[in-house]
Specification:
Layout (H helix, E strand, L loop, with lengths): L11 E6 L6 H10 L7 E7 L5 H14 L7 E6 L7 H16 L4 E5 L6 H9 L3 E5 L13 H4 L2 H14 L8 H11 L9 H14 L3 E4 L2 E4 L1
Length: about 220
């Protein structure tokens, strides 16, 4: 008898096909996304014969511990030694049935991208069991790219200023008001009326630091 099936505080059992979850980091991201890392959820991870149980588990725990918000968790790895076709699917189905016999009021989730579980889910659903299948996203979660132009407009401003200087340095503004108007009209995406004072100060300080301008009697002198 498997001890973790007898835990009455478990409200959710998750059975994971680790042929699909070989990347432990992506798998933990999946658990975090659905808020499955808690003591009321028992996660049982089934690894194939060619997977190293210790390496996979250690990588998973390492990724959990790297998160800013650390969670309590119940994760149990089980390695299947046979390499027969559909061996992992058969074992997962067996463990799922065993857990349902002892915890029929819990929620049961099979995590796999395989299509062979539909009949199991359909059958037990008709018996009133709360069971479903979820698929794993095998792609690394995308991280929104920072808008470098928005965070650091000076690069584009320098480029535009150099273009103007190349034609005629006299075309560049020399007073604060005219330079602000120049920034507002030329860099509409980066600079608005709401942030013009802040951006103007940043640009002026950057231009002075890079010796592109100097301030003389409250006027901008282009170098």
């Amino acid at each position: 008898m498997i001890d973790f099936f007898q835990t009455i505080n478990i409200k959710r059992f998750i059975f994971v096909d680790c042929d699909n979850a070989s990347n432990a980091k992506l798998f933990i991201f999946f658990l975090i996304k659905y808020e499955y890392l808690n003591l009321e959820t028992q996660v049982i991870c089934f690894l194939g014969a060619n997977q190293n149980q210790n390496t996979w588990y250690n990588n998973a725990i390492k990724y959990i511990q790297s998160q800013k918000s650390k969670s309590s968790y119940n994760i149990t790895p089980i390695r299947i030694k046979t390499e027969a076709n559909n061996a992992l699917d058969m074992v997962i189905s067996s463990y799922c049935g065993l857990s349902m016999a002892q915890n029929s009021h819990s929620e049961f989730i099979i995590v796999s991208n395989d299509n062979g579980y539909s009949s199991i889910i359909e059958h037990f659903t008709t018996l009133g069991i709360n069971i479903q299948q979820k698929h794993l996203d095998l792609q690394e979660p995308s991280v929104p790219k920072q808008n470098n132009t928005e965070n650091n407009p000076i690069k584009n401003i320098y480029k535009k200023i150099d273009e103007i200087k190349g034609k005629s340095k006299d075309s560049l503004p020399i007073k604060e008001k005219s330079f602000k108007n120049f920034l507002l009209s030329t860099f509409r995406k980066e600079i608005t009326k709401d942030n013009i004072n802040e951006k103007y100060k940043t640009v002026i300080e950057g231009l002075i630091k890079d010796e592109k301008i100097k301030i003389n009697l409250n006027k901008i002198e282009w170098l």
